[in-house]
Amino acid sequence: RATSRGGSKKGRRGGPLSLLEIVKLDPGLRREEDLRVLVNKLLSHSYFSEKGHEVVTELARHMRLLTYRLGDMIFKPKDGRQNSGAFYVLVSGTVSVEVAYEKIIFDVCKYTTGETFNRAPSHKTAARCVTDCKLMVVTVRDVENATRHIEDKKMSEKIHFFRQLPHFHDLHLEDLRKALLPFEQKDHTANQVISCQGEKKHFDKLFVVITGECRIVKKLILPAAAKGGDVASRRRATSFLEDARKKKAPPQPAPPAG
């Protein structure tokens, strides 16, 4: 049988920890560098790379070590849905994946320390420990919970941000949640054009600046006198632009009290 290790609470020695030392730690004692080791190991599997860095990091925060002895079965065909869709990270030891055909057992492949393997729902396979093994397991339910946690966290951050904006702070919570569903966050670099005047694809969109500054530029037709090179014409052009800016400038919020 497998036994779950609650994790060690002893102080750590200097220098980076191995994968085995990290998973032996209590999850609450794992540092950022420890999580990076676990995340990189999980991301090496295509299934986890599709889930995204945030979800995998959330999984790495809570993964615990399971210990199996020589000859133990990690999963069997008769387990049904019990281990369906589970993913394993072999921390130490060797595991043999077997298939039974007309009462004859065939060794399909072997996995050793550092490798990952999984059991898909449709595979009628079994996994047996060739040696004493230590491994981490991630179930489909773990992935679903981590994904839901990340989505809830992002939604809470959105709600907190939009509560501070005009037209949104008076909405009821459920109405605000529905209003935020169509929003998608995009990153832009300095001097990148987000939208051009006359583009129909952005005509019905609302842009909200989360961080940074955006500049709205409008093309103005200057008076004919501005085309001259004399000082008086340039002054009139400058005055015209200043008046245009004042008309377009949004009202400034009142300074905080105190």
Compact description:
By secondary structure, the chain is an alpha+beta fold.
Description:
The protein has seven helices and nine strands; from the N terminus they run βααααββββββββααα. By secondary structure, it is of the alpha+beta class. The strands form two sheets. It has a five-stranded antiparallel β-sheet with strand order 1-2-9-4-7. Strands 3-8-5-6 form a four-stranded antiparallel β-sheet, with no helix packed on it. Strand 5 (95-101) and strand 6 (104-111) form a beta hairpin. The longest helix has 23 residues, at 140-162. The radius of gyration is 30 Å and the shape is elongated. The relative contact order is 0.09. The model is unreliable at 253-258 (pLDDT under 50).
Secondary-structure map:
Layout: E1 3-5, H1 19-24, H2 32-43, H3 46-49, H4 53-62, E2 65-68, E3 73-75, E4 86-92, E5 95-101, E6 104-111, E7 116-119, E8 126-129, E9 133-138, H5 140-162, H6 173-180, H7 231-248
Antiparallel strand pairs: 1-2, 2-9, 3-8, 4-7, 4-9, 5-6, 5-8
